[in-house]
Amino acid sequence: MAHRRIIESEEFSDRIDTSLWPIVLTDNFSSELKEIYEKRKLAVDLYLKNLSNNEILELTGIHRNHLSKFIKRCLDFDENGVIWGYRALIPHKHLKSYKSTNTPDTDPHSHTPPSMNGAFQFLLACYPELKTLIENLYFKQSSRSASDPIIRGKEIHRKFIKKCTELGIKSPTQYPFNTVELARRSLYEYLKKLNYAHFEKASERYGEDAALIANTTGQGSVIKKIIRPFEQVQFDGHRLDVIIALVLYTPEGDEIVTIIDRIWLLAIIDVGSKAVLGHYVSYNKEYTPSDVLKCIRNAIIPWKPKKFTIPNLKYPEQGGFPSGVIEKAQWALWNELLYDQAKANLAEIVKDRLKQTVRCTVNSGRIKSPVKRSHIERLFGLIEQNGIQRLPTTTGSHPEDPKRRNPEKQAVKYRVSAEHIEELVEVLFAEYNGTRSEGINFSTPLEAMLNRLKRYEVNQMPEEQRSNLNFLSLKATREVQGSIKKGRRPYIQYENARYTNDILARSSGLIGKKLGLLVNIDDLRVIEAFLPDGSELGKLRASGRWGITPHSLQVRREIYALKRQKLLDFTASDDPIEIYQKYLESTLKTRKTNRNKYLELTRKNSESEGNDNIEIIHEETLQEKVNEEIIELAQVKRRTEEVSKVEVPKPNKIRRTIVF
């Protein structure tokens, strides 16, 4: 029987399982429509159960011709590739738009107007140039205009008619010129369909924020719910909506007050418990790799409460940070870190430290895509609302924000300093960790972490690695310089400064050899050096004042950049850091970016004051290692020369190269 071939065909063999078909909710149908739908559905079900056409006709009243049509509709796919199923049986439902097969031109001798159904689609099919023009104009794929970033439908229609004329469609009897509005309504309807069919492109018409959300949400698999602490953390940086005062004093004792309006807050939040693990405040124009690493370090090293300078400011009784109040959270390492592809995050030193020290995977996500890191973005919003935007020096969330009340003047009046902001942020985060949240069953982040750490294990940094933890170390190699003939003792050159120590200075046998270096980019006064076999040589100190005043790699590079521009000049006996600081002071009124640099520099000096972290070198032990290394290198050289049939130097000549 012919009708059996519909479901017996291999084409439909994987479509006849009705349990996979989309269902229809008939609660809102009228009694008449509901009866029609249920008869159609029953007829299709009986057909798939191999009942005869006569039996189906007797039970449902549906003839075989209509039944065949219903079956084919059910087995077809919609525009999203989903089988129509029972939806195709809904009364008056159109599965496909009407397509005209000819242009509805007007016959001047006829008194009957032509049918316009499907005329617009047929016109676009005949003239693809019109379709391209409409889509390019609507989505602004070319000829973007700053004065008219979103083109209106009225303008698209005007250019559409002009294009029709250029294509030779001019006669008043031709479509669209034979319609009252020149196909305006059909064009507007087509633009609506473009919106539905190209969601991401259509969102771009309404700004970057809408486009960002459209492109980063609602697609792909559902993100799994994370409840285990330290399974995943989120990192990001946020520019605070606040202005602070920078107070300086001239040699004569006069006070100078200027302002700084660019302050970055960096934070790491645990996704499972929603607890803030650590944070850092940066005063750089853009936060740097060093700032990122300091934030990571603060999230791992056990937290200790600060002493506040703001009167009556104190920590909440139930707040704090996990590494300071939960034993299992001390030195805890996370499995995955989510962060934005900002410039500082992409630095190799950040990737290296995450890989070598934290041993976590990194998911950088899309640039400027906060949706995937909603927890950290919400956290920054709470910090602004509950603290920063309540200050008299707040800039508000936008220039017209009513909270903004001459913040520059208020900063000078109230002397809101960098220390005040750091202390306030510290308390706000500690308070957040002790505040109940609906998202974690109305417990606090600290309570959620404590309870879940009783059920889950967490990776902790081994004890032997904790004492030598340095997130800010950069690996490098340098060749030992020096000359016995010229009386120049061994040293290495790094970033325009010489480094040596007593051991290296007495080890002329290392001249020409390469040493491995661990460079703390936050303090270049000393560099840790290693012999070619990996044994420790000790800490090398920079010569002159470079080895006394604390400074970072970034500061040294800026100093030499200014020197090349002849804006700075100093001798070997001068302190370059002091001269650089005076230069910044002299430009604070004219260059806003130098204010941030000055504040970072003075903070560095304050942190390092009375805290010289250069360890005492155990000379005898190190010298013994160096001597052994030199002897081994000499023996290798001797064996090489023997192979080359070069006269082997006498042992006493080799021994003379070793200086004790």
TrEMBL record:
<dbReference type="InterPro" id="IPR036397">
    <property type="entry name" value="RNaseH_sf"/>
</dbReference>
<dbReference type="InterPro" id="IPR012337">
    <property type="entry name" value="RNaseH-like_sf"/>
</dbReference>
<protein>
    <recommendedName>
        <fullName>Integrase catalytic domain-containing protein</fullName>
    </recommendedName>
</protein>
<feature type="compositionally biased region" description="Basic and acidic residues">
    <location>
        <begin position="398"/>
        <end position="410"/>
    </location>
</feature>
<feature type="region of interest" description="Disordered">
    <location>
        <begin position="390"/>
        <end position="410"/>
    </location>
</feature>
